[in-house]
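Single Protein Entry

Contents — chain, fold
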Amino acid sequence: MAVVNLKAKIFNCTNSIDLAKKISKSFGTGLGNITISRYSDGEFQPSYEETIRGTRIFIIGSTNPSSENLMELLLMIDAAKRASARHITAVIPYFGWARQDRKDKPRVPIAAKMIAKMIESAGATRLITMDLHADQIQGFFQIPVDHLYASTIFIPYVLSLKLDNLCIASPDMGGSKRAYAYAKNLSSDVVICYKQRSKANVISHMELIGDVKGKNIVLVDDMVDTAGTLTKAADLLIEKGAISVRAICTHAILSGDAYQKIERSKLEELIVTDSVPKIKPHSKIKILSCADLFSDVMKRVHNNKSISSNFIM
């Protein structure tokens, strides 16, 4: 049987064009040609302006709200399936709606599961994503999922800072596993902030578990939304005797008055990736690109090679 030499093509969703350009450049190719037609009522229709029959295509698009970003990705996957693409890989640097991964009270949806089914039903044959809010979301899919960790980007940066008395902190109990994984690779101690919420995005109480006196703290989290948890944790750590507090967060959503909170807080630096588009420049925010990480994994997937070397955690 003859071996089919698949050609790889990369396409972008509208909101992720900047990251997609970086990924395609690192991959060694240009972005594919696609147009978005819009009706006066807001309805839109993506169209591939080149043949993709029999190819392996990568569609790059984070699914952060608004829901139009998710809808555009789904339509592009469906269009690729109907255009006879051989393999369709959805590259979702930030998998939005992932905080709804379980029923935490009666009569609420499990949005992450629903979106996983929608992506599969649209026709995706593989998913590549990074730092899911909950690891078990991988199990919501019946297609292969390559779940990457931004620790491969962040850990070399933290090491370059050469901080004495380094200590890793989790801003909540849910992130303790992530904090311990970082601490193991950085040979450091771990402390945990215990928080209670009165409602979504509102913290009513926070306590510290562990000793931080005389230590340089690095808070670790998967995302920063309103920055309420991070800034409150940073202020608490300084009050308890920490020398400095930095934070590393993969997905910089930064909604509401997040930038103002960061400016007013005791945070020395917030280190994020460019998985979520349109991060505003800020003196305390350091952006590390995830383009090379995604590009390398995409190459390995295309060439049927192992990607295990891309995992630190």
